[in-house]
Amino acid sequence: MSARQDGLRHGLKTVMNLAARGCKVIIGDIIDDTKIRDRIIDETTNNLVEITHVDLASLKSVRAFAKNIVYTQKRLDILILMGETGGFSNLYTEDGLLKLMQVNHFGPFLMTYLLSDLLKKTPGSRVVFVSSLLSLIHKLRNAENLNAAIPHKNHLMSNIYEYGNSKLCMLMGAQIFSEKLEGVTCFCVFPGISKILINKSLASSSINTFMRFIYKIIILFGKDEWERSQTTIHCAVSKELHGKPLAIYANCYKFPIRPRPLRNKELCDKVWEQSEMLVKIGEEEKIK
Predict the structure, then answer these.
(1) Are 102 and 93 contacting, i.e. CB atoms less than 8 angstroms apart?
(2) Which residues have CB under 8 Å from 213's CB, separation 6+?
(3) pLDDT digits over 100-125, tens only?
(4) Among 120-124, 131-135, 230-234, which stretch is predicted with the lowest mean pLDDT?
(5) What is the pTM of this model?
(6) Per-domain residue ranges for the chain?
(7) 2-190+224-285, what's its fold?
């Protein structure tokens, strides 16, 4: 199952791969795009493809989506969390949460939480958290500023730091989910830089000459969406990774650098507790 917010590029290639293997796939998408579903079915000849509405920027929508999965599915073998957005720095949703944080962390966090029982009941189940290399660039100093806007004279840097915070929080959540979900294997993925997004940025008239130069350098190391999907698929289906402890993967190998905050257990625990509070996890819902 794959959930995303803006664009189905990486997600589409991931879903195509899983469907071609004969998997039943449920796509959680903000747009109920039957054309996408029909395209996947046509190209993979797999009719077991569904698409269901979910808006990661709405706690109510995430709860409705998870409730539907729990009531209609007997098992959940693979949960892939690739909701991702950017460009919404300092904007808040109706839930009172930073939109970028909610789409990239709070929404996927709540979804994993609500589906945890179904995951634990499914032998050999896996959760793949699609994070980002930008999780290394953050302003997360304590859990108290988890939902606080990051002021910066440069709007681009404000957005980068907020995005980095959100993807770092996802890694922290993944680390604790891996400890709490007995029998469930968790992975974190750095899919790589998208050539498509960099090309779109270069087409923008709002970026300065220096950033254009930086983007042109970055694009040399960028990946197309098929390439970006490969590490996600590797973590989702590789038999040799079954039961492995949590690790970050990039280019289908373990990533050599671990963000320093992940080694701070006290901070990770506080981010977890703050996330529980902000997404309104009830006492009866808490993972024991």
Answers:
(1) yes
(2) none
(3) 999 999 999 999 999 999 999 999 99
(4) 131-135
(5) 0.88
(6) 2-190+224-285
(7) Rossmann fold (3.40.50)
